[in-house]
Amino acid sequence: MPERIGTVERNTKETKIRLTLNLDGTGHSRIDTKIGFFDHMLDGFARHGLFDLDVTCDGDIAVDCHHSIEDTGIVFGTAIREAVGDKKGIKRYGSCILPMDEALVLCAVDLSGRPYLVYDAAFTNQSIGGMDTQMAKEFFYAVSYAAGMNLHIKVFYGENDHHIMEAMFKAFAKALDAATQFDPRIQDVLSTKGSL
To answer: What pLDDT does 195 receive?
Structure first.
């Protein structure tokens, strides 16, 4: 079976990003975005999805964290699309309802080729560890559109912003892992159209 790895580099006046994603990894990560909490979220994604993830981002964080996180989302989604390839034999759909202490979060994914984000979440605080909480939506929006996936995230409940955000990233990891798994019963792509 060929390796399912996506490597993407993107350089602008605001950010310089290099990212490698291995869908068939072991949960190993090397991450340096200069935004501590965002690094923690990406590490949790890799570890709980059993993906190998290597990310470096040199961005204009003297301005704020916006460009670094949004642009990392663009690169991340592009790497997912590249790694998934023609999607033959994969389950296409994945979902996870994930608890993190008092928080409960749903994530559902469809690797349909059609980008769409539904995001239902609210935070109490403006930022967590240098990451603006409103950037979670911007990140997942960028991922969904660059990857060409339906991505639904819903926070059922939670009080601690750290737990809510962490549950979102981990639920996304588990849902994406499920969607990218092979099923021997699927011989082509899982679509009545014959392509995704």
So the answer is: 78
Six-digit token string for 61: 């964080």
Residue 99 one-letter amino acid: P
Q: What is the pLDDT of residue 192?
A: 84
d(CA 156, CA 122): 10
**What would the pLDDT profile of 43-63 be if each residue is shown by its tens digit?**
999 999 999 999 999 999 999
Q: What number of residues does the chain have?
A: 196
What pLDDT sits at residue 67? Answer: 98
Q: Which residues of the chain have pLDDT under 50?
A: none
CA dist., res. 26 & res. 47, Å (int): 7
The CA-based diameter of the chain, rounded to the nearest angstrom, is 51
**108 sits in which H/E element:** strand 103-110
Tell me how far apart the alpha carbons of residues 9 and 55 are, in angstroms, rounded to a whole number.
10
Distances (CA, A) of 25 to 48, 73, 123, 146, 185: 11, 20, 32, 21, 23
Q: CA of 40: how far to CAs of 28, 145, 165, 194, in Å? A: 13, 23, 10, 39
